[in-house]
Amino acid sequence: MSAIQKIGVIGAGQMGNGIAHVAAASGFDVILLDVSDEALKKGLGAIEKNLARQVQKGKLSEEDKASTLSRIKTTTNYSDFGDSDLVIEAATEDEAIKRKIFNLLCPVLKPEAYIASNTSSISITRLGASTDRPGKFMGMHFMNPVPVMQLVELIRGIATDEETFSLVREMVLKLGKKPVSAEDFPAFIVNRILLPMINEAVYTLYEGVGSVESIDTALKLGANHPMGPLELADFIGLDTCLAIMHVLHDGLADTKYRPCPLLVKYVEAGWLGRKTGRGFYDYTGEKPVPTR
Ligand SMILES: CC(=O)CC(=O)SCCNC(=O)CCNC(=O)[C@H](O)C(C)(C)COP(=O)(O)OP(=O)(O)OC[C@H]1O[C@@H](n2cnc3c(N)ncnc32)[C@H](O)[C@@H]1OP(=O)(O)O
Ligand SMILES: NC(=O)C1=CN([C@@H]2O[C@H](COP(=O)(O)OP(=O)(O)OC[C@H]3O[C@@H](n4cnc5c(N)ncnc54)[C@H](OP(=O)(O)O)[C@@H]3O)[C@@H](O)[C@H]2O)C=CC1
Prior knowledge:
CATH class of the largest domain: Alpha Beta
Radius of gyration: 19 Å
Strand content: 5-15%
CATH topology of the largest domain: Rossmann fold
Number of strands: 10
CATH architecture of the largest domain: 3-Layer(aba) Sandwich
Bound molecules: acetoacetyl-coenzyme A, NADPH dihydro-nicotinamide-adenine-dinucleotide phosphate
Number of helices: 11
Shape: globular
CATH superfamily of the largest domain: NAD(P)-binding Rossmann-like Domain
Structural class: alpha/beta
């Protein structure tokens, strides 16, 4: 079993930059890829900001911040993954995009390299089968925000080798995270439970049972959730929430997973939550303002 030292990360969005951050902070060399220099600049900016916050809180020294940043390189070119030991895919939650990425990635990888997907919901068996190495492929599902959340769900596809699972599990422990194993069913464990709750919160808004503020306050103060479900949906990204609901609805063929029409409309409007400045809250001012 070869050791993992060089990590590739695909997608510099909120999850990809978080994964690059924690991997580099744990001493791994990281190469981060996205489609444009602009996306890479934004991702690197988020890493710098989150590291600076850790320095400000006295949890990290300036030297450790600098050495973490020095371990992260960026690229738009797949050939830079030639010496990667493990590549973690964290691009948009869309099966067609992920398949396209694996088609570009596999030919440049060394034969012994592993691939993991940070997908929130899509079949690991199906994604693995679209690569040239289903035995060396598995699900590695980090939680948002990655530098803060302890859990990583580990998902074997039907073809995943035991060696792959052990190696990735060991890597999760090296990142200081807690692994939990989930079977390859739509949306695994966390999102099988969390997303129907978020979808139900959107129905609660849609049917006029409560306002954005009352729904979020109710769950924060009534169930001790750190964020209300609509605030959390905006934080995850409404496009990602809808994609997960579609996977649950299609994959489990049960009407209880029907995406709320209001969630569909918000995504169609481009109101994707924090990342676009508007979702159930408007983020363009100093403080988030509920929109309904
Ligand atoms: C969709 C999927 O596929 C799976 C998922 O990820 S589902 C989403 C799972 N995540 C959640 O449920 C998050 C729920 N929310 C929370 O736990 C909290 O609101 C929170 C941790 C995000 C912020 O907590 P808070 O008390 O409001 O903020 P604050 O005190 O400022 O920050 C707490 C810590 O988080 C850090 N932090 C906050 N936001 C952050 C961000 N976006 N990125 C990095 N770090 C962040 C802060 O630096 C702070 O770190 P320390 O404890 O080391 O000092
Ligand atoms: N949001 C969350 O809370 C969580 C999300 N996940 C999963 O992580 C993955 C990423 O989600 P998240 O970071 O939130 O999404 P974001 O929208 O923040 O980021 C996605 C990134 O992928 C990039 N991208 C799109 N297409 C390609 C491509 N063909 N090649 C390379 N990069 C590409 C996007 O670039 P551009 O902007 O230029 O399109 C963007 O930078 C998804 O699979 C999601 O389900 C897992 C756990 C939690």
